Task: inverse folding
């Protein structure tokens, strides 16, 4: 049996359990759309612009849909998609984006709708591929999904020339071993020992919860750890929802648009534990003065993310899904070791509370967001665009889970909210 390149793509998507994808047609990829239509098992959502295609796939993935899949055509289709790729790359969204390309015999000739897609997307993807033969297409497709979801998630781009999409090859090439074992993560036991020993002697500890904690799926273990050890926590913009708005240890959002109490707490802490936070400039302000009084431990899945912007006293390289359960094996401090610290934080909250005066004749934005949260409870997923409304939402909406808040944090992309 022979498969066309388009049929190989459809088969790979099914094998990766993809049931929904997003796209906008064009000549270079029309054969893929034809195959999707003939088969009819994968829901294809038609958007009106390639940037919206990528944002929609991004929002789908962040809401718990798995890996976002997007399909765009060559030339301007790919260049229109770049902002979406950069958005997903900054916020670590697992995605596979397939673009069409002019036929291999036309590449490099400045043909109609030809761009050097690989050079363009190299800086905003975890990895990108130019498919040069139909025989390698199935292997590249499955490898792309593997890379998108492993380690720190992110977007992967595959550029496929039109003649390869139309070509045929024996179906044997589709028989790919997709169960290759990932390298077993080494548990950083010594580093965890050192962190828990430091916590035993600390008097003003604080947990900094970042986007990595939201992406890891470890939020229930993090909540249990905070409760058991009575450690106050602050969330970054991308970490909103990890603790849940009603967690007794949550102070609020930290950083430029954070609460007074959260910023005062992290400024006066003597031990900061970062759970998947990247110490963005909106959180740290001046990096040379951030956490001067504190011992800082950073937990991250990638060594390259450690100490990129600030001094780190204890790096812990590991997946939060594995590291936090190990931290739960250690006993909590005896008595009320942090009682004075909790009282200080309560005083910060009382002195400058996060709040607003309801309007007498007009609804205020903060009031609308607060009431919307009360109305929907745990049933809503919230997407935002970028700007003041985004910050009001982060401050006032009662998020229960990490996936409740879908927003462009790292890149701050205008136009993200509606397609997401």
Result:
């Amino acid at each position: 049996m022979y498969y066309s390149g388009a049929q190989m793509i459809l088969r790979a998507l099914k094998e990766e359990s993809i049931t929904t994808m997003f796209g906008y047609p064009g000549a270079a990829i029309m054969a893929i759309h034809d195959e999707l239509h003939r088969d009819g098992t994968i829901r294809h959502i038609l958007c009106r612009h390639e940037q919206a295609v990528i944002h929609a796939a991004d929002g789908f993935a962040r809401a718990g849909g798995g890996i976002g899949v997007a399909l765009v055509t060559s030339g301007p289709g790919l260049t229109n998609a770049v902002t979406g790729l950069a958005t997903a790359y900054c916020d670590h969204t697992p995605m596979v984006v397939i673009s069409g390309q002019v036929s291999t015999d036309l590449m490099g000739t400045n043909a109609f709708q030809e761009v050097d897609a690989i050079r363009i997307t190299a800086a905003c993807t975890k990895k990108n591929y130019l498919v040069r033969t139909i025989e390698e297409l199935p292997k590249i497709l499955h490898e792309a999904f593997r890379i998108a979801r492993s380690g720190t998630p992110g977007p992967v781009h595959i550029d496929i020339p039109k003649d390869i999409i139309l070509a045929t090859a024996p179906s044997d090439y589709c028989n790919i071993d997709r169960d290759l074992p990932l390298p077993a993560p080494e548990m950083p036991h010594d580093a965890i020992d050192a962190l828990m020993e430091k916590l035993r002697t600390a008097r003003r500890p604080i947990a900094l919860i970042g986007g990595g904690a939201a992406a890891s799926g470890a939020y229930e273990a993090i909540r249990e750890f905070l409760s058991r050890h009575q450690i106050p926590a602050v969330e970054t913009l991308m970490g909103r929802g990890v603790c849940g708005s009603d967690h007794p240890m949550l102070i609020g959002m930290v950083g430029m648009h954070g609460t007074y109490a959260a910023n005062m707490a992290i400024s006066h802490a003597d031990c900061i534990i970062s759970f998947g936070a990247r110490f963005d400039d909106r959180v740290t302000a001046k990096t040379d003065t951030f956490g001067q009084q504190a011992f800082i431990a950073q937990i991250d899945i990638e060594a390259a993310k450690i100490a990129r912007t600030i001094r780190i006293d204890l790096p812990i390289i590991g997946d939060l899904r594995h590291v936090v359960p190990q931290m739960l094996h250690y006993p909590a401090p005896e008595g009320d070791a942090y009682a004075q610290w909790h009282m200080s934080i309560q005083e910060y909250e009382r002195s400058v509370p996060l709040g607003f005066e309801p309007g007498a004749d007009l609804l205020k934005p903060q009031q609308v967001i607060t009431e919307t949260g009360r109305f929907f409870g745990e049933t809503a997923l919230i997407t935002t665009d970028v700007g003041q409304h985004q910050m009001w939402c982060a401050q006032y909406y009662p998020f229960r889970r990490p996936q409740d808040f879908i927003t462009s944090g790292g890149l701050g992309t205008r136009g993200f909210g509606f397609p997401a």
Q: What stands out?
A: The radius of gyration is 24 Å. Residues 378 and 400 are 6 Å apart (CA to CA). The mean pLDDT is 94. Residues 50-65 form the longest helix (16 residues).
